[in-house]
Amino acid sequence: MNDKKGKPATVADVARRARVSKATAARVLGGYGVFSEQARNTVLSAAEELGYYPNEMARSISTGRTGLIGIVVGDIENAFFSLTVRGVTDVARDRGFNVTIANSGESLSQEREMVRVLQRQRVAGLIVSPTNLHQIDHLQSVIRAGTPLVTVDRYVAGLQADSVRGDDYERMSDMVDRLTALGHRRIAYITAVEQTEDRAIDPDRVPVSTVRDRMLGFLEAASRAGIQDAASWILDGANNDAAIERHVIDLLDANPPCSAILASDSTIGARVFLSLKARGMDIPRDVSLVSWFDADWTRVTSPPVTVVDQPTYLFGKVAANLLIDRIEGRTDETSSTIIPSAMIERGTVAAPRINNT
């Protein structure tokens, strides 16, 4: 603790304890300028002994930024985003940054407000999972302000920012190929995202890049298999239990009925599984099911669910490292990082009872 009883330790106190100049102590504690590894270790050790904490407000006034990273995600309750945030915070901690987390609730207006709030807090950089790739004025504003920006999971073509995302188009295409090879023709894709009030599916009008890419992969693979009405089997707006259940009922009541369902996220996948069971369906003999994201529940159902496993924790780690490298001036060119996903075969995919055409 500080030798001056009752007073918080200062940079000068740390410098005296470490036996270095005040300027050296300030550089180490502020994370700027040049200093040796020995000086860094000595100063940090002295700071810990004295219980020194930097004044972030003073630092932001003097340097124009804080040691704070902001992250805005679509739904913090979704395990996908929770693991992404954990990846960000783990890297940030190791590299000397703190993290402020904001939840957009998949609302564009809320996302804009959260970005403004974080900019007012003078964050050193931002990580955002954009809710709408067609409306990005607030993200362009971040870039114009000179604040480093990384988009995670979702991306915006042409935006001058680093991005980290999955191989959604390729993985969806592979999944449809797998199902058609087994004989499936009535394959449905259910997503929470609503593209428009118009029911005609058009991937170019979809606001979320991940869903757009999956739709494109779905339609391309279906076309290769000679399925002409594939677009009519894409069902959007599945953003609550009632909507998901309505979709499942419609698919089972179709003539002929759906034989395979691809769920766009684990929340939809869980509700689809329960709805199929409630209707007395044998999974996978009556209906095959694949869910995006390897959530815990997918391993304990009977049968366990086949999933597309996305390394979301890695998404967060890569995004945080890219952002901090840019904050620290270690990189110039923007980059687009695609992290592959993988199918985990379990017990919910099989050939259909009847090869519907």
Automatic annotation (TrEMBL):
Pfam families: LacI (PF00356), Peripla_BP_3 (PF13377). Residues 9-63 form the HTH lacI-type domain. GO terms for molecular function: DNA-binding transcription factor activity; transcription cis-regulatory region binding. Keywords: DNA-binding, Repressor, Transcription, Transcription regulation. SUPFAM superfamilies: lambda repressor-like DNA-binding domains (SSF47413), Periplasmic binding protein-like I (SSF53822). Transmembrane segments: none annotated. The keyword DNA-binding applies. It comes from the Bacteria. The keyword Transit peptide does not apply. This is LacI family transcriptional regulator. It comes from Pararhizobium mangrovi. The lineage of its organism: Bacteria, Pseudomonadati, Pseudomonadota, Alphaproteobacteria, Hyphomicrobiales.
